Amino acid sequence: MTSLSGFLGWLRRIFHRGNKERAPAGEASPADIARRLVEMIKQTQPEEFTCEEVFAQLDQFADALERGDDVSALMPMIRSHLEICADCKEEFEALLRMLQGHPADPQRS
Amino acid sequence: MVKKTNTEWLSDLRTTGAARESALADLRSVIMNGLPYALSTWLSPSDPAFIPLAEEVAQETLLRVQSRLDTFEGRSQFTTWVNKIAVHIALSELRRRRWKDVSLEVMMEEGEGHLAGLPVDPAPDPATAAERSDLLAQIDRLMREELTDRQRRALDAVAVRRLPMEEVARRMGTNRNALYKLIHDARLRLKRRMAEEGLMPGEVLAAFED
Predict the structure, then answer these.
(1) pLDDT < 70 regions, chain B
(2) Number of domains making up chain A
(3) Per-window interface: B 48-67 vs A, CB < 8 A
(4) Of B80, B184, B194, which is closest to A99 when you measure between CB atoms?
(5) Which of residues 61-100 of A touch B (CB under 8 A)?
(6) What is the pLDDT of residue B190?
(7) Residue A11 pLDDT greater than 60, yes or no
(8) Residue A77 neighbours by CB under 8 Å, 6+ apart
(9) What pLDDT is attached to residue A75?
(10) Would residue A19 count as lying in a domain?
(11) Domains in chain B, ordered, with CATH?
(12) Which of A25, B3, B9, B46 is an S-S bond match for B161, by CB 3.0 to 4.6 Å?
């Protein structure tokens, strides 16, 4: 996966199943909740970066993605963390919007 | 858009006088120009709360950048590094404001048995509905059997309820990193236990596909 749009689309597929972005449990369907939880379990690795470790490299990761580098190969543990941690993923996407000068897509917000 | 090399930014910020003040002003512009995009899922630039927040974030970011200048390793664009800090400060503040009047009890809602207690979605057929209900109950049972109370509550809060980690961590008397590690251990236990019980995550996910 080398393209930025491809990477973002892949992240959205991980987090936006059922199109429920950060919806509280009372608003997401049980199927969404189950998928969310099981997806997290499925993605779980024995060794994972903490949020602090990801934050330390998030700028490098964002710049690499903007250049079209293959971040999956170069920084796999950052990618894995962003699959699981909604807070870090939210910060990463906000940073990308800042770098690109684009607001969020209203259909995906 | 201000265009400087990393070397120029660092040199100007490490000096004193007009060059430093000019660099700080340029950096502030970079931050202020970028925040409308960064915060577009939270706050419109036309919202009266936006400008005060952006000013506060820019100020705090500049302070943090100056105090941590020596930690910049030059592996990214300097402005990307700065924007990363600004985003973190901004989103932490927005999450704090959103949840500031919500107690731990309300956040957690004593969530034991939460998955099992949820009504199942309308399913294509009764057999699918029964399968989904059974899977929810199995996952809930594994969580009860395998996890500590603290882990179960943390996983419930973050993974099920999608509550922000910093806010959950604060209310649990810990920090975001420690909370992440707690939940990581919980996920590892559940992954191992699911495998022992023949519950393959891919098959469970397929059962909930519409």
Answers:
(1) 1, 104, 107-124
(2) 1
(3) none
(4) B80
(5) 62-63, 84-87, 90-91, 94-95, 97-100
(6) 95
(7) no
(8) A45, A47, A48, A49, A53
(9) 86
(10) yes
(11) 6-99 (1.10.1740), 107-207 (1.10.10)
(12) A25
Name chain A contacts of B38, Cβ cutoff 8 Å.
94-95, 97-98
Q: Which A residues, 16 through 35, put their C-beta within 8 Å of a C-beta on chain B? A: 22-25, 28-31, 33-35
In a domain, A109, yes or no: no
**Closest C-alpha to B97, from B146, B36, B137, B52:** B52
Whether residue A106 is contained in a domain is answered as no
The tokens describing B73, both together, are 């390793």
- The whole-angstrom distance between B204's CA and the closest CA on chain A is 7
Closest by CA position to B38, among listed B15, B58, B68: B58
Task: Render pLDDT for B115-173 as a digit per residue (tens, 0 to 9).
Answer: 655 555 566 688 888 888 888 888 889 989 999 999 998 988 888 788 899 999 998 99
Structure tokens, B72: 């910049």
Query: Residue B22's CB: how many other CB atoms inside 10 A?
Result: 12
Using pLDDT thresholds of 50, 70 and 90, give the confidence band for residue A31: confident
The pLDDT value recorded for residue B121 is 58
Instruction: Establish if A31 belongs to a structural domain.
Output: yes
Tokens matching residue B47: 């919202």
